[in-house]
Amino acid sequence: MLLKDKVAVVYGGGGVIGGAIAEACARAGARIFLAGRTRSKLEAVARRIASTGATAEVAQIDALDTDSVERHADDVAARAGGIDIAVNAVGVAHVQGKPLAELTVEEYAYPVSIYTRTHFITAKAVARHMAPRGSGVILALSTPAGRMTGPGYLGHCVACAGIEALTGHLAGELGASGIRVVCLRSHAIPEVPALGSHSHEVFGQVAQRVGVSIDEMLAGAASSTPLKRLPTLGEVANTAVFLVSPHAGAMTGAIANLTCGFVLD
User: Is the bond leading into 151 cis (omega within 30 degrees of zero)?
Assistant: First the structure.
């Protein structure tokens, strides 16, 4: 098992993507700690993990609040003997689809502030426990919006570019402590809006703006990739497992590209 006896904290673990990554890590042998705002969603993921015989614990915290994140990290490290893996899969609904002329500064700044803040807070909290042990992996999630020109994605574009820049900087700063920092850049995942999440609201805004359904919008996105499809939730979750595993031990500051070729590195 790739992650046997590893301790993994998944922020946003009650969401569709965070939950899928948590379940995949559990199948790979990790002990899972789920953190997020909505206890019912966290408990649903924990039940699915427990049904396989793996271990998952739940904590209702705000991943934008420094004190609560640090207290939670301290508690996990004290009870589990350390933290080996941290995944930030926090997602928030935000405005997309509006061109610059219609976008307010608040609408632009909201995703930039939220996403860069939570990734900073969670990385700092877990790095304090990884550095003394000389090992650990921090995984961030991004989208190709950081490389897209829009219109309609300005705030999300800058937020994703910020997450990827943060990945590179943290990799350089924390590498000497044995901590790897990696990012997974995924294109739109068709199962995510279908299963219900903030993504449904975000995708709906864009689709409505151009006068198509979400399914039609996703079909168009799929046809624009070289592979003529979009990544699956399973592919994203299993790639996340690989990235945080010893098999990817030489990777840091890297962005795994799961855009089906939509963005070429």
Answer: yes
Show the tokens assigned to 234. 């399973």
Q: Over its length of 265 residues, how does the chain's per-residue pLDDT go in tens digits?
A: 899 999 999 999 999 999 999 999 999 999 999 999 999 999 999 999 999 999 899 999 999 999 999 999 999 999 999 999 999 999 998 888 889 999 999 999 999 999 999 999 999 999 999 999 999 999 999 999 999 887 888 999 999 999 999 999 999 999 999 999 999 999 999 988 665 566 656 666 666 766 788 888 889 999 999 999 999 999 999 999 999 999 999 999 999 999 999 999 8
Q: Please state the φ and ψ torsions of residue 48, each to the nearest 5 degrees.
A: -65, -40
Token pair for 3:
């992650």
User: Residue length, the chain?
Assistant: 265
Closest Cα to residue 46, out of 59, 54, 61, 56?
Answer: 56
User: Domain spans of the chain?
Assistant: 7-257
CA distance 143 to 185: 5
One CATH from 3.40.30.10, 3.40.50.720, 3.40.630.10, 3.40.50.300 for 7-257: 3.40.50.720
Tokens of 103: 């976008």
Alpha-carbon distance 194 to 100, whole Å? 29
Q: How far apart are CA 200 and CA 247, in angstroms?
A: 34
